[in-house]
Amino acid sequence: MKSGASPIVQGWCPGAYRPMMSGDGLVVRVRPFRATLTQSQVCTLCDLARRFGNATLDLTSRANLQIRGVAEDDHPALLHALTVNGLVEDDPQLEGHRNILVAADWRQGDLTDRLYDKLLKALPKLPPLPEKMGYALDTGTRAQLTSGSADFRFELNTDGRLILRADGAAKGRHVNEDTAMTALTEMVTWFIETGGIEAGRMSRHLRSTPLPENWQETSARPPASPLEPGPFADGMILGVPFGNVSAKDLAAVAQISGASEIRLMLGRLLWLRGAAPQKPTGFVTVPGSPLLRTHACPGAPLCPQATVETRPLATRLAGQVTGTLHVSGCAKGCALPRRADITLTGREGRFDLVRNGAPWDEPAKSGFSPEDLQDLSGFS
């Protein structure tokens, strides 16, 4: 990025059919169906990351996986392999809009599972939306997706009834399984007809355009406490620092742990169902690690938008902030596109410091070099 230039916001996220060019090659995103991968699929993805990418995988803030460093000439072969292994949709348009957050504790035939099937069938029939927009099926035993990036949210209210809530609205409307997709179509249509496409996201649109009152009938149940690494249900949860893991380490944990499947969760967590407790290399295995409160994008030179290295600094500063720390290569804030207690934003080779804000907010102080940032205790 040129000195003084603003970062380029693409308006879309990388996908399997529509990858995004970065400093180390193409970024190819895989959206696991129901946020779940079998042991065989995990090993296949790891093998593909070694064959076609830089031998690492990124776990995104939307609980997707990305293969980085793919050469343009290799993309068709990678896409074919992803398709034949059931990791992406055959329909490029459907795959590009399949941004669905799923309650991690879904079970075959339960409400979340049934809604997922209905939503997949409804997506091709919905009016076209910006590709960054997405959906949440927060209908598990506890509300775990409140902080996730989604625009149309199927949730449960305090009485356990199904509701549809527009992201950014305090309340939602009552629906049932039979009316859920009709209500979603109505909300999407309203969003488009009231100029939401220009805003790009539902919460941003609602800042200037009021939602119909009859769509604000009831409150969703309160969010549950975030999950942490450690033993969990019939397996264990692992944390992935900065969402980056080597293909070798992920394949090893999938095979050695005995997990029947791996479910991808918000907070850059992996739930290994059926796994025996262990402490594998490259993962956080105990609660309370400051690395999971610290967010950092790949930074320079891997991202052409960034002018600073990010993860070495984030690793060094992890634990110095009581709450969340975000080290962002530029003002886009891809690793954490929302507020953090302390945000360090790269600009022209140095860092701006934002308190209780996002990378694009007004900084409290500017012009720090990495060497200047030895101790953050005085800034939090």
SSE inventory with pairings:
Layout: E1 20-22, E2 25-30, E3 36-38, H1 39-52, E4 56-59, E5 65-70, H2 75-84, H3 92-96, E6 100-102, H4 111-122, E7 135-138, E8 152-156, E9 162-166, E10 173-174, H5 180-193, H6 196-199, H7 202-206, E11 230-232, E12 235-239, E13 244-246, H8 247-256, E14 261-265, E15 269-273, E16 294-296, H9 311-317, E17 325-328, E18 340-347, E19 350-357, E20 365-368
Parallel strand pairs: 6-7, 7-8, 16-17, 17-18
Antiparallel strand pairs: 1-2, 2-5, 3-14, 4-5, 4-13, 8-9, 9-10, 11-12, 12-15, 14-15, 18-19, 19-20
Overview of this protein structure:
By secondary structure, the protein is of the alpha+beta class. The chain is 21% helix and 23% strand. It contains nine helices and 20 strands. The protein has helices at 39-52, 75-84, 92-96, 111-122, 180-193, 196-199, 202-206, 247-256, 311-317, and strands at 20-22, 25-30, 36-38, 56-59, 65-70, 100-102, 135-138, 152-156, 162-166, 173-174, 230-232, 235-239, 244-246, 261-265, 269-273, 294-296, 325-328, 340-347, 350-357, 365-368. A hairpin with a 5-residue loop joins strand 8 (152-156) and strand 9 (162-166). The longest helix is centred in the first third of the chain and has 14 residues, at 39-52. Mean pLDDT is 92; it is low at 1-5.
